Amino acid sequence: MGKTLFDKVWDNHIVDNIPNGPSILYVDQHLIHEVTSPQAFSGLKKRNINVFRKDRTVATADHNVPTLNQHLPIQEELSRNQVETLTKNCKETGINLYGLGHKYQGIVHVIGPELGITQPGMTIVCGDSHTSTHGAFGSIAFGIGTSEVEMVLATQCLLQNKPKRMKIEINGKLNKGVFSKDIILYVISKISASGGTGYFIEFAGSAIESLSMEARMTICNMSIEMGARGGMIAPDEITYEYIRGKEFAPKNEKFDESVQKWNILKSDEDAVFDKVLKFDAEDIEPMITYGTNPGMGIKISEVIPNSAVENSNESFKKSLKYMGLKSGDKLLNHKIDYVFIGSCTNSRIEDLRLSAKIVKGKTKAKHVSAWVIPGSKKVEKLAIDEGLNKIFMDAGFEFRQPGCSACLAMNEDKIPKDNYCVSTSNRNFEGRQGPGSRTFLASPVTAAISALNGCVSDIREHI
Amino acid sequence: MEKFNKTISQLTPLKIQNIDTDQIIPARFLKAVSREGFGENLFRDWRYNSNNEPIKDFVLNNHNKDSKILIAGRNFGCGSSREHAAWAIYDYGFKVVISSFFADIFKNNCLNNGLLVFQLEEKIIQEIFDKIDNNRDHEFTVDLENQNFSSKDLKINHSFSINEYNKSCLLNGYDNIDYLLSVKDKIIQFENSK
User: Across all residues in chain B, what is the average pLDDT?
Assistant: First the structure.
C-alpha cells in the first residue's frame, strides 16, 4: 500500500514507538517566541539541564510587541519583561534571536518561510497553534504547548500519537474576487471548527496547485481553525522557486540535491486516507464570518443562517447575541468601525500588494480606523521599497511595524468593545481582538474595499 | 507532576460548545513568565463584567467553589495552543475536565500538567447536564485506575478510555520530559543515522 505525504515525513522522523503509547518524533526545526517559552526555559533550569540542540531553535519577538515606535523601550511593563526574558534566555543558551530591531524580526510564521528556514520534508514545531502555516512546504508543522516546548529544548523530540490522515481536494478554477482566504473560510464553514480534529490534512487539487506559496500558507495556517493539528501541501516547482535564494535555504549544488529529495514528497497514487473531502472551486465566493468561531462563515452575498454545523442552538444564539446580529440579517453593507490587515494568516507582501491595489488613489471612510501591519521587517521593507506604505497612508490607513498586533490584542492594538472589525486574521472568538470586540474574518481584498466603503463590501462589485 | 488517582466532587457544568482557549484565559493575561496564578483569570470575561463585578449567571460565580470536575460541551479547548489554559483550570482547582470532544493540543497540555481529560458520548453528557440542572449537589467519582466515572445518587456509571501511557504517567506523576531524557541515547543514535 502506498504512503501519504504525511506518512512519508512522519516515518522519516520516528526515533521509536512506545508500545500502547505515543511515538517519539524528532523535530528538525523549533521556533520560539516570548509568550509561550519563558516557563519552558525555567523548567530546564529547575531540572538543571541544557538546551540539547541550540542550532535547531530560532527565536523572535512578535506576540507582545508594539507596532509603533519599536526603537523605544516597550512601554507596557509586563510585555517588556516577557521580551527581555526571551532575550536573556536566548543569550544564556546560545539560541539565535531575531528580536526587536533586527532586520529579520517578525511574526514567527512569516519569518520561517521568508528566510528559507522552513523547507519541505521537515518536522517543525512552535508554541503557537498557527505553526500549521509551514505545512504549505510539505512539512509536518504543528503547534505545541509550553511543556512540549520544554521537551523540544531538552531533547529535540516530542511524544506524539499519530493522527489520522485526511485529504481535502479543491478542483477547478477560482472565481474572480476569490482568494485563498476565501477557500479556507469556505472549507471551514462546510466542515465546522472541529471537523478536522484528530486529523492531519493534505490539501490537494488543481485549485490548490495553482496558488502561490504565500496563498498556500494562508490555507495551511487556518487548518487549525477546523481543529486539525496541521495541514500540508505537496511541494512542487512553485515551492522550489520560492525557496531558491532565501537566506538559509541550501545553495547551488546543495539546492539541486535538496530538490531531488523533495521531489518524492507527494502522496503515492494508491495511498489511503482515513477521510477524503472534495470541493469545487467554482462554488466558492468571497467569504466572511458572522459568528464567534471560524466555522460560522457565509458567502458574502448570503444572509446569516438559523444554525451552523456542530453548533448547538444555545451556543449559536449566544454567539449571535455577542455579535449583535440576527439570523436573516445581511452582512453586506453592515457598518464597520475597524479594518485590520495583518497576522500570520495575511500579512505577507502579496497580501499587502493585493490590498494596496484596491486602495490606491482612494480614501478610507471617515468613521473607519484602518491598520496595516506587515508580517515582518522584510515585508515592511519590501512594502516601503514598492511604495505600498505611501498608498496606504495616502488613503488614510495606518502603516505600522511588524508583530501579531490586533490578531490577538496582546499589545496596545485592541478593537474597542462592541466595535466591528473586518479582519484578515484567523480567529473571531469572543474578545479575541480586545474585550467585547466583534470580528468579521475575511480576505485582505475584502478588508481593503470595506475600509473604503465603511461597511462590509463585495469586491466583485468593484472589479 | 502531581499524581492523580481518584477524585470525588460535584460537577461544574458549562453547557456551551466550541469553548476556545481565548475564553478560558484571554490573551491579555498571558504576560506572566511563571506558571502560577492563572486561576484568578480563568474564564475572565465570562466571570466578570467590564467593571470587574462578578456576572451572577456564570456557573463559576454561582456554584460550589470546591468542585474539582468541569464538564463542558463539545470541542472544548479549541483555538490557541496556550498551555496557560490548562494551567488556569488546574490553578483554579479543577482536577478533571470532561467533554464529548477535545481539541488535540489542549488535551496534550492538560495531560502534561496532571489534569485528567476524558471524553464521554455527547448523549451521555447531555443526560448529565439534564440530571444536574435542578440539583448540582450530587457528588461524582472519577476513578482513573478503574477508568470509571459514576454517581451513586444519580445512578450514573460510565467507563472512559485513556491511553495506557498517559494513564500510567498520571497515576505515577511521571512526566514526558523525564521519559524523553531517559532515551537520549536513542535520540542521538537517530541523529547519527540521518
Answer: 95
| Contact yes or no for B104 and A229 at CB 8 A | yes
Of A26, A144, A193, Cβ closest to residue B78 = A193
- Report strand pairing: A123-126 vs A140-143: parallel
Q: Going by C-beta distance under 8 Å and a sequence separation of 6 or more, which residues neighbour residue B155?
A: none
- Compute the distance between CA of residue A122 and CA of residue A27 in angstroms, rounded to an integer: 8
For the residues A413-427, what does the mean pLDDT come to?
Answer: 98
The model carries a pTM of: 0.97
Contact across the interface for B104 and A198, Cβ inside 8 Å: yes
* Predicted pLDDT of residue A390: 98
| Superfamily covering domain A308-461 | Aconitase, domain 3 (3.30.499.10)
Does B40 have pLDDT greater than 90?
yes
The CATH number that domain A164-283 falls under is 3.40.1060.10
Query: In chain A, positions 36-75, which contact chain B (CB-CB < 8 Å)?
Result: 36, 38-39, 42-43, 47, 49, 52, 63-64
The share of chain A scoring above pLDDT 90, in percent, equals: 97
Question: A314 vs B176: CB contact, 8 Å cut-off?
Answer: no
The ranges assigned to domains in chain A are 5-160, 164-283, 308-461
Write down the number of H helices and E strands in chain B: 8, 8
Grid coordinates given for B3? 499524581
Identify the pLDDT of residue A133.
98
Catalogue all structural domains in chain B, each as residue range(s) with its CATH number: 6-193 (3.20.19.10)
Which ipTM was obtained for this model? 0.95
| b/e code B68-97 from CB counts within 10 Å (16+ = b) | bbbbbbbbbbbbbbbbbbbbbbbbbebbbb
Report the candidate in A182, A192, A180, A190 with the shortest Cα–Cα distance to residue A225.
Answer: A192
pLDDT given for residue A310 in this prediction: 81
Nearest to A429 among B79, B81, B181 (CB): B79
Q: Cβ of B165 and A20 within 8 Å?
A: yes
Taking 80 as the threshold, does the pLDDT of residue A463 lie above it?
A: no
Neighbours of A315 (CB within 10 A): 22
pLDDT in tens, A205-214: 999 999 999 9
Residue A215 pLDDT exceeds 90: yes
Q: Which alpha helices (DSSP H) does chain B contain, by range? A: 21-24, 44-47, 84-92, 104-111, 122-132, 164-172, 176-182, 184-193
- The reply to whether CATH 3.20.20.140 applies to domain A5-160 is no
Chain B residues near residue A429 by CB distance under 8 angstroms: 20, 22-23, 79
Inter-residue contact A285 to A300 (CB < 8 Å):
yes
Q: Could you tell me if B142 and B159 are in contact, meaning their C-beta atoms sit under 8 angstroms apart?
A: no
A26–B187 C-beta distance less than 8 A: yes
Which pLDDT belongs to residue A20?
A: 84
Q: For residue range A75-113, list pLDDT tens digits in order.
A: 999 999 999 999 999 999 999 999 999 999 999 999 999
